[in-house]
Amino acid sequence: MTLLELSTVSVHYGRIQAVSDLSITVNEGEVVALIGANGAGKSTTMRAVSGIRPLSAGKITFAGEDISKLRADLRVVRGISQVPEGRGVFPGMTVAENLDMGAYARKDRRNLQPDLDRVYELFPRLRERRGQAGGTLSGGEQQMLAIGRALMAKPKLLLLDEPSMGLAPQFIAQIFRIITEINQQGTTVLLVEQNAQQALSRADRAYVLETGRITRSGPGPELLADDSIKEAYLGVA
């Protein structure tokens, strides 16, 4: 079943067209990756899905509903949660307070404990640091916190924008293992990532963006094995 569909979506920043006639689908239960160079339009696409950037043209459908003009906060209520590029944790709040903020839009706030337990099971380090200010965590720990905060909204679709950016190699491997586990637990994932090796090896399907347009698509492992993809994005000639 199709959970998310972007149909001929275009997005502008002033006169600059960042995304042009972009069409992608994300099916329920999948991990779908968007890969491409800096400036290809990946993060703009994510902002369009989450409602942070308005569309210039096209349509976004989520769970059968046209959400093209729906406010960003109401998209969270519908089941879309984004982990932004750069993590964006609240530095002066504790880990526990950051996680509680992730559930701000939920109507069942009395039933948060099972979801908090799930986050702490996925990220035991957050449980250890639950009283520590978010701004004092390492980069990897902040990324864990940002993902945990998004999960507290109980999303149907988790948007991950460059989750490995600026992280040490051991944290990158750990974050991607957890992304796979989150997906196996039933959350659909749309992933923007410059680490094409990790993204394609974890994705059911992937799209390649170049200057705001889709140039390639296919199963993640198939694109990972493609020589032109290796040369362009994996540094393999």
TrEMBL record:
InterPro entries: AAA+_ATPase, ABC_branched_ATPase_LivF/BraG, ABC_transporter-like_ATP-bd, ABC_transporter-like_CS, BCAA_Transport_ATP-bd_LivF, P-loop_NTPase
Residues covered by the ABC transporter domain: 4-236
SUPFAM superfamilies on file: P-loop containing nucleoside triphosphate hydrolases
Short name of any one Pfam family annotated for the protein: ABC_tran
Keyword Nucleotide-binding: yes
A molecular function GO annotation: ATP binding
Keywords from the named record: Amino-acid transport, ATP-binding, Nucleotide-binding, Transport
PROSITE patterns: ABC_TRANSPORTER_1, ABC_TRANSPORTER_2
Family classification: Belongs to the ABC transporter superfamily.
Protein name: ABC transporter ATP-binding protein
Lineage: Bacteria, Bacillati, Actinomycetota, Actinomycetes, Pseudonocardiales
